[in-house]
Structures are given as structure tokens and as C-alpha cells.
Fold this sequence. Notes:
By secondary structure, chain A is an all-alpha fold. Chain A contains 9 helices and no strands.
Amino acid sequence: MEDHRLPESAPSDEALVARVCERDTAAFAALYDRHAPAVYALAAHVLGDSEAEEIVQEVFLRVWNKADRFQPARGSFRVWLMSIARHRTLDELRRRDRQRHVEVAEEVDLLLAGAADRVAGVEDLASASERDRAMLRSLGRLPAEQRRVLVLAYFGGLSQTAMADQLGWPLGTVKKRLRLGLQKLRAAMAGQGFLPDPRARKG
Amino acid sequence: MNCDQVRELLEAYAAGALDPAQHATVEQHLARCAECRRLADEYAAIVSALPGALSAASPRRPPAPLRARLLDSVRASAARPASPDGKPGRVPAPTPSRRSPSGRRPRTLGGLALSILLALALAWGLQLNVALAEERALRAELADLVGQQEIVFEVVDSDRTVKSVLRAGAADSPSYGKLYRRPDLPDVVVIVARMAPPAPGEAYHLWLGTHEGQTHLGGVISLNEAGFGLLVFKAARSGPDYRSAWVTSQPLGDVTPAGTPILRWDANP
């Protein structure tokens, strides 16, 4: 997903990764500064602060050691990185406390819903990137049940069938909410200029 | 599955909400279908922006000392010469010091000093940060290779872990091993370090003795080029109660221990 508002001078993630392959520590620091807050937030809200530190360390050491395994043709760096971070975090959650998935997801959902209301008042979110704010805004516009199901899946690591089983919802309802929620998010992000979709790009 | 059926699942696929079998089916379709792949990539990009939104909503930030530690590690490794596997500046750089019959010395800068330090540390029962970090990194790499990373982390890095050290029979040998288990898990992890390659036709076997007097074969340990090996296996029950563990070099296919133990641990020496 490209951000067409990125200043010309800022190197892309992919350019930074290529420099990390050449052992460029400044490029590594730049990648860390861009993406560590998101990795940390994911791990901290699912597992806790001390575990989150370990996960950030692990994930970024992996970036340093295995930068040559990243293949830009197969997707963006952010997708690669968040996929690793999410898998590692959910593995740890599954290992430590199998009961916490729903609870974790509810906490995250509350945080996202609460903050989404505040995005318009930009002061305390000034340090967040444009993309983060756009996503937060888009999440705020989702019907609560659609956001909830998405958060249960992505942050709680629950499958559709697990959600239906554990929460006593009809499976068809879960599936519909997940589809609609993601379709709406995609449209909302495109509407704010965050997808390479010519029809949706802002003029 | 045809494209229409896959398209109905793409949102759930991106959110990680499909059951494993459906996930695999969709993945296989995407490997062959560029149109569906393009749409899947868009959804992947959307969900990958969720952690960023959470970090915007959350007061929690990665602490500054974490950044400093990480940058120190990578700067130190970037300044290091290439390790013998050809990859420059990994964190941390493994130092091979296997003793071949010709008595070959380690080739990396500082490698000889490092192996002397390690031998001394073992003799004194000390744990140097360097030794531990190196072992951890090698262990993680190997675990990654054998696809066992999760189990290894689970068994080795918990506060319920019981650890036993296997020491070499020969006084001047740098080799050692560690046996990890947990009272609440049946999985057992064994690492061996700084081992010379076994004799041709033989392999390292890990044997375990129980308090009931039985002997089990834990498994065969293969070594990487640094003389480091990892074995993961499942005992018959959680919290296996071992009184001894030893490593021998024997022909593959042997079912009973033979030969002098290369490494050994006893609960009650």
C-alpha cells in the first residue's frame, strides 16, 4: 500500500531494507523508528510490556539478520514485518494463556474505538503517521460489530469458527461482518489516498 | 476452488481468520492466480496497517533503552568481519572452534580468545554474556531450520524450565550440552555445543536414564558447521523425571548405548 503523500526525499522501506542487506546501520535505525511503535503496540496490548520488548528485539534482529530473505516482488516490507510480528505474538499468546484471546481483543477494540473518536482533535496524535491516523479514523467509522470481529481475528488470533463457537454467534453472521468490515476499511483507506487504486485516489 | 469462491474468503484470509485447511487452499489458489493475488495483497496491506493504528491510539511506546541496545548490537556486528558461513555482520557472529584431528584453530578474529574464555567459564561454572548470547543465537537459528522454534522457545525460555548441564568426559574438551524440560510439558530440548564431527558412519546419540532404571534413546543429534546441535523430542509424559543423560557416538540404527559417553549429566553424581 503506497502513501502518495510521502516526501520525495524519504527513502521507501524497500530501499532501506536493501541498504540493511549491505549492513547499513543508519538504514536499520530508520526502519526501527518507522515500524517499532506498531510492533510494540501489537505485542504490548496482546501480551504485556516486558514480553513486547522481547518481541520487538526478536523481530528487528530478524530483520537485521535476514534482510536478504525479504523479496519486494512478493509484497511490501510492512506486510512482511507485521506478519512476522503478529505470528510471533499470537504464538506466544497461545502458549502462555489460551483463555485470554477474547479478553485481549476486547481491550484492543475499546482502545481503538475510544481513540478513533479523538482523531479529529489531532493534538495527542500528532506524532502518529498520516497512515496510522487514517486507519484509526476508518476504524472509527466502522459499525461496532464489524470492528469487533476484525479485532478478534487480527489481534485475538481467533478463526471465524472459533469466534462463532466461543462467543455463541452464528457463523454466517461472523463471516458477513468480517467481509463487510474489511471491504469498508479498504474503501475508506482508498478514499484517503492510501491504496494504489486509480479510481479511489484523491485528486 | 475457483476465483469466485476464493474471493469470498479473501477478507477472512487477510485477517487470519480462516481454519488451517481453508487457509492453505486459498494460499494455493493465490500462488497461481494473479488477479486474486492482487486483491489479496490489497487486503494484506489493510490489515498490516492495524498495528500502526493501535500504536496511534495507545500511550505505550517501545522504551528508549531497547532502541539503544538494539542499535549497539547491530553496530557491533556490522563492524565485525565476516563469519565463516559467508554472511557478514550477523548478530551475534558464531565462532566456530571445532577441534578437528589436525588441531585447526578458529579462523575468525578473536575466536581463539573467545574459545579460551568459554572453556575457562565452563570450568568455573560461569556464564559469560557473550557465551550465552552466542548460544542463544545459534540455538534460535537451528530451531528455525528444523521448524521447531516455537517449542524450543517454550521449553527453554520459561521460568518453569529445569536445566541440566552435560559435561565432557575429557578435561580439556570445550564441548558441553544442556538438557531442558518443564514440569508441565512433555517436550524436551537438548543442545550440544562445540562438538567435533563424529567418526565416519557414526552419529551422536542422546540417551536418557530414568529413576526407574530404564534407558531411552532421546534421538540422534546432527551438528552444524559450528559444532552445534539441537534435538527436540517428546517424552512419554509431562515433566519427565530423568536421573541421567549422556551422549555417545555410535553407528546409526543402534538401539542400545555403546561406547564411552562424550558428554554426561547425572542427577546424583
